[in-house]
Amino acid sequence: MVQPPNPYAPPTAYGMAPGTTYPCARCGQYGADYFPAGQPPMHRACAALGPDTLAWPWLLLAYSVVVPLGCTFVGAVLASIPYYVWRGKYPQRARTYNRHVWIGFALSCVLWGGLYAIGTFRR
Ligand SMILES: [Zn+2]
Fold first, then answer.
1. Which residues are within 8 A (CB) of 25 and not within 5 positions of it... i.e. 6 or more apart?
2. What is the rounded distance in angstroms from the CA atom of residue 34 to the CA atom of residue 51?
3. Residues with C-beta atoms within 5 A of ion ligand 1
4. pLDDT of 13 higher than 50
5. 115 CA distance to ligand 1 middle (Å)
6. pTM for the whole thing?
7. 83 CA → ligand 1 middle, Å
8. What is the CA(29)–ligand 1 centre distance, in A?
9. In this structure, what DSSP letter does residue 104 have?
């Protein structure tokens, strides 16, 4: 899925250089921290959005979906659904969450691979 280029996107993916802030489309104050695709930047508060952070129960969900499904992409794809839901309005949350999905995927490969190896050697 390719997103249309956002002319108001921040210059770097990980935080902006100090002093380079954008004015908010709602209140006019500088320091806008929300960059909706195709729209001028806003404060997250002005856009009625919560903080762009990930609550820890989501991590439990990610791992409990990915790990039992083992080293298959089914678990990774299922667990990635919230990532696609959040990507537009909560980019930081989506990124953090997605990182944990792949950590869980790697863990499950090690875990299930190890179980398989033990089973193979015992025969
Ligand atoms: Zn504002």
1. 32, 39, 40, 41, 42, 46
2. 10
3. 24, 26-27, 43, 46
4. no
5. 53
6. 0.73
7. 26
8. 6
9. H
